[in-house]
Design a protein that fits this description.
Layout lengths: L1 H10 L1 H14 L2 H12 L5 H29 L1 H11 L3 H6 L1 H9 L5 H10 L4 H33 L3 H29 L1
Length: 190
């Protein structure tokens, strides 16, 4: 599946930018790491990846906020799931929405639920954007830099990966040899 996606991205960059936009609107961390990694490898233009990524991130976050405003009527089951996820931090979410957005941005798995919960509580778009823009920009910068740097590091060490593989093979053979010797020795002693 992954080689097919890479082939699709190299064949059609507009499809890749479309996937960047919707990937960041719907998911987040993993998608951004992959985007940064592939951008460093040259599959995407850095400027275009940043523009589509940031646009997808903030439009997605805004859509999650509006989903929260309508969720009670759309799906009672999803409403209950959001409440279950956010109940332990309910007091903090309501007391300081900006801090809740910032912390949830860096906490995997609860960011969308926090945004939906804030929408349910009627947080205005202006207040939401005032909190979400700095948190989103910082999160985007850190995660993108991490993915980009990881790609650069991998390119630097790829020549040494062969030796690492041989080292792991040697350690594995040594482990089995020692296990075999210890097993035979213990059988003789018993």
């Amino acid at each position: 599946m992954i080689p097919f996606l890479i082939q699709l991205l190299t064949f059609s960059r507009p499809v890749g930018y479309f996937l960047i936009f919707f990937g960041l609107a719907l998911e987040g961390d993993f998608v951004l790491l992959v985007i940064a990694f592939l951008t460093h490898l040259g599959l995407f233009d850095l400027g275009d990846a940043l523009i589509f990524g940031l646009t997808g991130l903030f439009i997605g976050d805004t859509a999650w906020l509006y989903l929260g405003k309508k969720l009670d009527t759309l799906s009672p089951w999803v409403h209950r799931q959001v409440m279950r996820l956010t109940r332990p931090m309910e007091r903090h979410i309501l007391a300081n929405p900006a801090r809740a957005i910032f912390i949830s941005k860096f906490t995997y798995g609860i960011h969308r639920a926090v945004i939906i919960r804030l929408g349910q509580n009627g947080l205005s778009l202006k207040e939401f954007l005032k909190a979400d823009l700095p948190a989103g920009l910082l999160w985007f910068t850190l995660i993108f830099t991490l993915g980009y740097a990881a790609s650069a590091s991998l390119r630097l060490i790829r020549h040494y990966l062969h030796y690492t593989e041989l080292g792991f093979l040697f350690v594995l053979i040594l482990f089995f040899l020692i296990s075999h010797l210890v097993s035979n020795y213990s059988k003789e002693k018993l």
